[in-house]
Design brief:
The radius of gyration is 29 Å and the shape is globular. It is mostly helical. The chain contains 41 helices and six strands. A hairpin with a 2-residue loop joins strand 1 and strand 2. The strands form three sheets. A two-stranded antiparallel sheet has the order 1-2. A two-stranded parallel sheet has the order 3-6. Helix 13 packs parallel to helix 19, helix 23 packs parallel to helix 28 and helix 29 packs antiparallel against helix 37.
Length: about 900
Amino acid sequence: MTSAITVGPQGQKAALAMSTIAFTVCFAAWTIFAIIGIQIRQDLGLSETQFGLLVGTPILTGSLIRVALGIWTDRYGGRVVFVGTMLAAAVATFLLTYATTYPQMLLAALGVGIAGGSFAVGVAYVSRWYPAEKQGTALGIFGAGNVGSAVTKFFAPLVLVAFGWHAVAEIWAAALVVMAIVFWFTTKDDPVLVERRRSGERPKSTWMELEPLKNIQVWRFSLYYFFVFGAFVALALWLPQYLIKVYGVDIRLAGIVAAFFSVPASLFRAYGGHLSDVYGARRVMYWTFLVSVATTFILSYPPTDYVVHGVNGPIAFHAELSVVGFTVAVFILGFFMALGKAAVFKHIPVYYPKNVGSVGGLVGMIGGLGGFILPIVFGLLLDLTGLWTSCFMLLFLIAAGSLVWMHLAVRHMEQEASQETIEALPPFPEMQGMATPARRPARESASVLTDWRPEDRTFWQEKGRKIASRNLWLSIPALLLSFAVWQVWSVVVAKLPLVGFTFTTDQLFWLAALPGLSGATLRIFYSFMVPIFGGRLWTTLTTWSLIIPALGIGYAVQNPDTPYFILLVLALLCGFGGGNFASSMANISFFYPKAEKGNALALNAGLGNLGVSVVQFVVPLVITAGMFGGEPAMVAAIATAAEAPLWLQNAGFFFVPFIVIAAFANWFGMNDIASAKASFTEQAVIFQRKHNWIMCWLYTGTFGSFIGYSAGFPLLSKTLFPDVNALQFAFLGPLVGALSRSATGWLADKYGGARVTLWVFMLMMAGVCGVLYFIGIKEQPHAFWGFFASFLVLFFAAGVGNASTFQMIPAIMGKEMGRLMPQATPEARRLQAEKESAAITGFTSAIAAFGAFFIPKGYGSSIALTGGPEAALWAFLIFYVTCVLITWAVYARKGGLLHDIERGRGRPAAANA
């Protein structure tokens, strides 16, 4: 940053002032839906969830684009990128006035969101003009452009009432164009860019820009910003309608009161930068989270009536925040959020002076995603709980979690700094000065494999295969139970009305969908746990964790008065089973050589996937017998008018003894591999590997399809063919998919994963075409059987593809290590390939698992918007076409990464050792 010190104060002031004004205008446009969205909702009759999605869509674009814009700013300079960003946002904002339907509104809102990406541009541009000791204040002043939200709150309601929401969009678009022109003619290129041009230095590559993102510290900063900025944006969008609905104020007063939150959360950001420069960013962050925890706790308390039975009779009183109290509370929350936003970005140019764009872009992106995700979650929580204060309950949990993580990280850092001194001390003070006895090395544990060479054929044949097989066959039952617990909730939910629970269809849908969401999300974290904790310990712990939802279900379903909130929590806890898949696959991948990984992973995953069929076949049987005691519910029998007993609690209790047995077997029978240890930072390198993201796409096409079709087929069949009892055949699809995965892993090992995957996606395209054809003639006799057969083709192909895509991952990384680590020894390359393959295997499974939610939701959205599921199926078909093209172009074609390997040429030496 020496170049920034030598520039004159005139250039610094101009860059900072114009960037702050430009960011203010961009932020005003970015949050425009907070006001005009209320009118649009009335015009289109949107639900709370639809409104939350509309308001949050611009935030999504503005968040996701920040990393790219930050990198472009580092490479090409902030002046040109800032102007281009404003002009693009202006065009999208103006075109918004031509949208007339909800899908058109969502599409236009994506374009409006470009304005939010300006934050990453401004941070990188402004930081280059100032030395490190002044960057906190400078970036705090720039960040005060968040006040653009308040500008929209103040003026947009007046324009809307006078001229309509179209005028608001047109005026805001014009302001962006004018600001872009003014910015271009009043600013100069930053000194770093000027110096680079003078010296002829080439900018760093994109991958080098992303290098710092592997540090967990960056992701911790991102969580902080998720709260201080993401929650700020979410509340800025949510508060107007909150005030209208809770306190009954009109839209103009709601905008003014909401501004009491937006103004301090923006203007005082500059003061937060000053405090961070003077007192330190850590201290500011502590105060931010401490006050935020207290404030959100007060705001989350719902209106409550209390009755105390005193000696002179009942004493009743009412607890509720008034409009004035609410305004004061959100003012305080906004003030400390402003300080926190400045404190977070104080760190970035200090720790990452050469990567401000990429690091600031990532932190800004995560924060911005909070502004997209949180309004949607606010709407969902409102729909599910009926409490307007539920949004502040969620913010309380996020603030408390951030505070705890920050404190633990600080304590760990302090302990690490003095660890050597502490270790040198004797166990008791009286022993100081005495001779230190020699330490004997601890005896090696039989459960830890310190010598593991699966690519050595002699070692593999004499010792390795037996150990690997034992770990595999202990892993499979645990994974089968994980899938069973993950999917058992879908069976239980269908039976809840029979045993006396009175929930709406929408409430039942969310109960059924939440395990898919939580399971997929947990997979992201579970992907990295095996190298950190060891496969034996982690598999044992995750197997034990299945007892929590199993016992919880058994007790909760016995009482129809169990609160809905408890059932929501149980639905989320069932996601433990879904998360286990990622760590199980990562663990098994360490045990096998490349030549046998495909079949081993196919057996583990395929037989584990059988848990879906097992639960759909077994649970309907066990709930008809009183094997665990307890009172049954009397329900109407299907065949007769008489009532029959139903022990729904058995759906959870049945799996408990098997979970206990599997957990003990994992602990006493499995092994850890010493060379498989790695920290999160070491594994996070996969986020820089392009093949990680490509395989996420392809595995979503295979496993995402399998789990999504498993969840959506029964309901889709019932909707399209109401006269057919399709539920009795529902287990066959997952069964075919699971068996095809476990039985065809050898195909990928023999012919190559890329070639098999290519044909898999072609077969899946044919399956979707068959489904579309038979839906078109669904009124014809036997159309259901053609429809069912087409889905069996999809399940079969998805199962084969699940095995072949996982076989590709170690082959890809084995080939890539020769390029990435040319100076390393073959053994070092093998170990690194093993670690990255395991992490990629887990991470891709995490991303693909979201298919459990999005495919059924795609059916529902397609039916709601078009009257049939065809639109969703056409989207799936197009997706499979992209998978075919990617697989062929990147891996299977002549010249592709795996072409020579799969045809016996260019096979890595380690594989033939």
